[in-house]
Task: inverse folding
């Protein structure tokens, strides 16, 4: 009996799919971007509630910010801030830019 090879040999004429190309960002760059948006969410807590309402954020994000303000436990607040960062990562670039602009105006 003939021994089988450990790999499949492509048939003649069979097309092979090109390997998928990633975004081009390494793991460290992705982590830095994630951390930057999480810190943006943490700064979002410094805005007054009426300023947050004026940003026209999704309802879930507004509720998450209100919940983070209510929490007093360090660990619970930290988890909530990470959740806010996750929600911010799902936003459009225009909404993230509006948050940055509102925070920049607050710093002045």
Result:
């Amino acid at each position: 009996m003939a021994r089988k090879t450990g790999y499949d040999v492509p048939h003649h004429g069979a097309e092979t799919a090109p390997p998928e190309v990633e975004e081009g960002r390494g793991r460290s760059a992705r982590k830095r971007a994630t951390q930057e948006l999480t810190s943006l969410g943490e700064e979002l807590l410094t805005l007054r509630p009426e300023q947050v309402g004026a940003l026209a954020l999704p309802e879930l994000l507004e509720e998450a910010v209100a919940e983070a303000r209510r929490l007093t436990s360090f660990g619970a607040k930290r988890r909530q801030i990470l959740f806010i960062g996750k929600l911010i990562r799902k936003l459009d670039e225009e909404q993230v830019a509006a948050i940055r602009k509102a925070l920049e105006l607050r710093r002045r």
Remarks:
- DSSP finds five helices and no strands in the chain.
- The CA atoms of residues 1 and 12 lie 25 Å apart.
